[in-house]
Amino acid sequence: MIRILWYIVIIAILATGAAWLADRPGDVAVVWQGYRIETSVAVAVLLVLAVVVVALLAWSVLRMILRTPDLLGSATTGRRRARGFTALSRGMIAVGSGDAAMARRYALEAGKLLGREPMTLLLRAQAAQLAGDRKTAEAAFNAMLEQPETRVLGLRGLYVEARRKGDLANAFIFAGKAAQLDPAVGWANEAMLEHLGAQRRWREALTMLERRLATGRMDRDLARRQRAVLLTADAMDSADADPDGALDAARQAAKLAPDLVPAVALHGRLLSRQGALRKAARVLEAGWKQSPHPEIAAAYIDMRPGDSALDRLDRARNLQRLTPGHAEARIIVARTAIDAREYDRARAMLEPLLKDRPPARVCLMMAEIAEHGPAGSGAVREWLARASRAPRDPGWIADGVVSDHWEPISPVSGRLDAFVWATPTELLGAHPAAWASEDVIADGDEATAVGYLQGAEAEADVTTRSAGKVIEATVAPQGEAAIGKSAPTAAPPPAAAVVKPPERRDGAEKSSAASPSPPATVGAEPRPKGDAAVTAGLASKAEARADEEAAARPRVVASRPQPSEVVFPMAYAPDDPGPVRDDDEAVQPISRRINL
């Protein structure tokens, strides 16, 4: 519409001019070299316009002729650049698909066609990395340092190569240079935080974090969290040397991240250490409401040194009133009640937690309660057996490492704020040492059972090596394992026989119809009771005998119990295991298996 209006305006101006000239006729005369040329004004105007048009056309033709070599060169360069960017694109696709040969080929082609284009250097470096040519990759990254737009990229490549070689000193030098060039670069800042955290230079790490936050290119929530973690770490290290500075740092950390349990617990401990008990109680109670955690509970219960066990129990009950339905509160009250020798209250606190699978610490506390109850040692052994198979208690986990205490950085990757409070992953089945430990507990040898449990991880590789050497393991009705020599007078059990743990109700054993009572022990050699070296000896002894007697006897696969069989058969009250005799009398046996 606007163009049409412009056309109309131009035509109107031309028509107006033509009409104006027509209304005012006149003559134009030119005398030059004895010639006299006369014409009208309108014709003179048209002649002038024609001369201008012809001059413009002549200049355009001459200009095109003069520029022909440049145009030909530009066309050739354009075709080369088009081919180069095509090779660059295909090289990137080859790198992404993992084709090292094609990536190297396209990198060479793009380098010839495009020269020292930044993207060609990147393709060259990535192709060399894909092919395992570290020298070529480092040369490409060093070439990137010469150009300002690729300097940070080259530093990152050199940092990665140095980490791969294990040269951490140069790696952190490259990261530091990148952080100085661009404080908002995430990888450089994370690397420097890892480096400074490993050296526990928390103040310098805080300065770097503030500089990065000032660029405005960092998420503020993440910055607050990292600042709280760094302040907590600094307060932990300076709590003894600079109590006032540590208290100020812990206060800031708890304010920045109220859900950071170590910051809240440390803040409360430092306040109580300085005698501000009421303020410490308010801080810890607020933190407990936010995150009921054992560390906050421990800081709250031990807030005033020298208190009696009953005073500590009163504070634990106060925490339970703040979070009445939380399981951690019940566990804390039960623990302090046991310390105060109020076992009935401790049992009442733990009873709601026994409906499902209670964790190991609950089972151990129930064993401690049963030790002072009327049920006697039988109930203690039952709870110790359940503890050996119970789910693991929560802990601080970072990169697969479970720690008893919180740390600001991961011991594996060095990542800041890596530890989280979670329950470790359970295995899909019990370890052979755990199965054997239950038999030892049933025999009354708790010390040997502890040795089994502590050697579970050490025996895992032995179990793997002897996977091809199948070992028979059956259990006599008295609960003793049958491992070792073959008996010449007895026949081996059927290959498909699988013995499942019987159900026990009110002190009596009940075996399922599909799982008959185990036959007489074939090739039995009774396991000695109370042998302190049984943890290390069983695996090697069984492995050696399996090699010696592999050709002499048939092999029977002892089926590992499924997860449903791992659960300790407990259909009766845990602290009332039925009729239990004294230690010098035989205990009601339970059939189990040992798989090495």
TrEMBL record:
N-terminal signal peptide: none
Residue ranges with Basic and acidic residues bias: 542-552
Record keywords, A-Z: Membrane, Transmembrane, Transmembrane helix
InterPro entries, per database record: HemY_N, Mms48, TPR-like_helical_dom_sf
Domain of life: Bacteria
Domain HemY N-terminal, first and last residues per copy: 26-132
Protein name as it appears in the record: Heme biosynthesis protein HemY
